[in-house]
Amino acid sequence: MNPGPGRRLIPAYLVTGGRSAPSGPALDRLAVLIRTDTDLPPGTGAEQRRLCELLAPGALTVVECAAHLDLPAGATVFLATDLVASGHLRARPPIPRAGEIDRSLVERLLVGLRSLH
Predict the structure, then answer these.
(1) How confident is the model at residue 33 (pLDDT cuts 50, 70, 90)?
(2) With bands split at pLDDT 50, 70 and 90, how would you rate the model's confidence at 1?
(3) CA-based Rg of the chain, rounded to a whole angstrom?
(4) What Pfam families is this protein classified in (predicted)?
(5) The pLDDT of residue 20
(6) Where are the domains of the chain?
(7) What CA–CA distance (Å, rounded) separates 84 from 102?
(8) pLDDT for 40-98, tens place per residue?
(9) Higher local confidence (pLDDT), 44 or 24
(10) CA 41 distance to own-chain centroid
(11) CATH of range 12-115; options 1.10.3470, 3.30.60, 1.20.81, 1.10.10
(12) Longest CA span, the chain
């Protein structure tokens, strides 16, 4: 049986090693992942290697990694949590939403900038 175009040969649940919960505190799906300089050990799985390679050029969120790896976000959380616990990735919390801007402050700033001319 040949899978259709773009279909994975290995089911995503096998990437998690059959676990139903990550090995440590689960990361937020919007957490930003950053690769460390630590080399991966020889027995590291292919999906974990792909995740680290994906992060070599720079930081991405967990959901962005999931999209690039063509994995469900939940499975990517498992992979990333394991790699953070082993010191191969760093994770930082999601960037909080910007608050409401004080319009009067912006108007005073514009007046000040215009007066410089």
Answers:
(1) very high
(2) very low
(3) 20
(4) DUF742
(5) 64
(6) 12-115
(7) 38
(8) 988 888 889 999 999 999 999 999 999 999 888 888 998 899 899 889 999 999 878 87
(9) 44
(10) 21
(11) 1.10.10
(12) 73
Q: Do the beta carbons of residue 73 and residue 62 sit within 8 Å?
A: yes
Give the residue from 28, 24, 116, 117 showing the smallest Cα distance to 64.
28
What tokens were used for 109?
Answer: 């700033």
Distances (CA, A) of 8 to 69, 70, 92: 10, 8, 30
Contact of 95 with 44, CB cutoff 8 Å: no
Give a three-class secondary structure readout of the chain. Answer: CCCCCCCCCCCHHHHCCCCCCCCCCCCCCCCEEEECCCCCCCCCCHHHHHHHHHCCCCCEEHHHHHHHHCCCHHHHHHHHHHHHHCCCEEEECCCCCCCCCCHHHHHHHHHHHHHCC
